[in-house]
């Protein structure tokens, strides 16, 4: 996360990694950043940030929720066969769908390159992304 924040800052954008620097917490609550990187535990398990997301000021300013490595929603956030464990490694990952309730109408982009079809369906359900069109033909090439 830090590397991504540093890259955005070098481009003249305001970015922070919420949870890594306590000093910046007040700046996040005041809405001083264009990009906020954080963990599910930080954004969902802290009453200050839940309140921030519920505020009308924030609801109008959040343009997109991005969940990178979305397969972790199942693999880390849940227990069972799909996760490969009897107990969740990081249970808050399975609760990321709560962001849809806290920020209704905000688009959500979930990105993964390694989830099976079964895991993708479970990810969609956990993130309340029902009724989506699958685009299995999308490819990414790196040169």
TrEMBL record:
This protein's name: ATP-dependent DNA helicase RecQ-like
Domain of life where this protein originates: Eukaryota
Helicase ATP-binding domain sequence ranges: 1-133
Entry's family note: Belongs to the helicase family. RecQ subfamily.
């Amino acid at each position: 996360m830090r590397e991504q924040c540093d890259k955005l800052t070098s481009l003249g954008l305001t970015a922070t990694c919420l949870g890594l620097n306590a000093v910046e917490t007040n700046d996040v609550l005041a809405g001083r950043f264009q990009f906020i990187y954080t963990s599910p535990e930080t954004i969902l398990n802290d009453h200050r940030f839940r309140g921030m997301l519920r505020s009308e000021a924030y609801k109008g300013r959040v343009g997109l929720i991005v969940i990178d490595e979305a397969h972790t929603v199942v693999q880390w956030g849940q227990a069972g066969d799909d996760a490969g464990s009897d107990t969740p490694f990081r249970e808050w990952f399975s609760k990321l769908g709560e962001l849809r309730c806290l920020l209704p109408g905000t688009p959500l982009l979930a990105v993964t390159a390694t989830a099976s079809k079964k895991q993708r369906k479970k990810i969609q359900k956990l993130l309340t992304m029902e009724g989506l069109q699958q685009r299995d033909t999308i490819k990414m090439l790196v040169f």
